[in-house]
Q: What sequence folds into this?
């Protein structure tokens, strides 16, 4: 089983019809959709045909009930603790006309996950654990995320990591961020272009990927480059994979998570990095062409 540890939240998607008017009204589309970077990865692992699990925390509220039910309906084994400290997390995503999004986040129940909440037996029996940096920028949930990785690693699992936010990395400082993950035994890292730029100190994609491969002690680097596809470095070798065709960008929310989940499901199944990159690019492009991080999938037509 591939287990993602971290955030499970609701996304409020807002796409204005025009320029926002300070103090005035603007029409547009507003939608409530399930999200959370780690949970999105778990869902896409399941959609790609692999056994998926999720560990996180939500509030003891109706939003928590609904989002757990949605996760289970996606075929994900949900190991979710409930807390009265905070309500279930909510993120506001403002979507521009070109599909790019700006996020406003609150610190909901997903920030209340603690080591005592971890299902030890599940972690000791899984094949792989995926973390995102959203779980490391504050404590809790940092201690829980790191403990989950250590428990799984001690039992022989591999570990992947998504740096999550170049703005948060810049705010924290690269040295401090590197210190946070210094003890993480990383096997696969999934930066996007902006995160790789901050972490590597380069603007050239090939240089970024190769530097990060060295920085993270030989971990596989799957560098997400949006319309330019991706670059994967393994064993010192760089492979570039072009993007899947995209008719129109609608909403980039969750595209990187879809890439991560499908890449993991594919690569951990057969070890074929080229195939994993192609499938992951396809999933990312499919999401960008639709609204929300987890657009509904017609399983009779779509294969990931």
A:
């Amino acid at each position: 089983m591939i287990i993602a540890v971290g955030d499970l939240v609701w996304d409020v998607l807002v796409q204005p019809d025009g320029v926002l008017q300070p103090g005035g009204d603007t029409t547009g589309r507003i939608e409530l959709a399930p999200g959370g970077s780690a949970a999105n990865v778990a869902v896409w692992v399941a959609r790609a045909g692999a056994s998926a699990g999720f560990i996180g925390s939500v509030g003891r509220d109706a939003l928590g009930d609904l989002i757990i039910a949605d996760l289970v309906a996606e075929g994900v084994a949900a190991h979710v603790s409930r807390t009265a400290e905070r309500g279930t997390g909510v993120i506001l995503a403002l979507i521009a006309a070109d599909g790019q999004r700006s996020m406003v986040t609150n610190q909901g129940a997903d920030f209340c996950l603690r080591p005592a909440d971890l299902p030890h037996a599940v972690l000791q029996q899984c094949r792989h654990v995926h973390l995102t940096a959203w779980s490391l920028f504050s404590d809790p949930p940092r201690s829980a995320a790191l403990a989950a990785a250590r428990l799984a690693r001690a039992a022989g699992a591999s570990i992947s990591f998504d740096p999550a936010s170049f703005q948060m990395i810049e705010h924290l400082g690269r040295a401090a961020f590197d210190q946070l993950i210094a003890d993480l035994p990383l096997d696969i890292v999934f930066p996007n272009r902006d995160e790789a730029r901050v972490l590597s100190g380069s603007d050239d994609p090939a240089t970024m990927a190769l530097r990060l491969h060295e920085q993270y002690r030989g971990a596989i680097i799957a560098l997400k480059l949006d319309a330019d596809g991706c670059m994967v470095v393994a064993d010192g070798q760089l492979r570039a994979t072009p993007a899947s065709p995209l008719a129109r960008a609608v909403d980039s929310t969750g595209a990187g998570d879809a890439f991560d989940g499908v890449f993991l499901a594919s690569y951990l199944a057969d070890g074929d990095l080229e195939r994993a990159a192609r499938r992951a690019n396809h999933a990312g492009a499919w999401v960008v062409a639709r609204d929300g991080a987890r657009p509904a999938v017609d399983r009779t037509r779509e294969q990931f």
Notes: The chain has ten helices and 13 strands. The chain has one domain: 2-288. The mean pLDDT is 93.
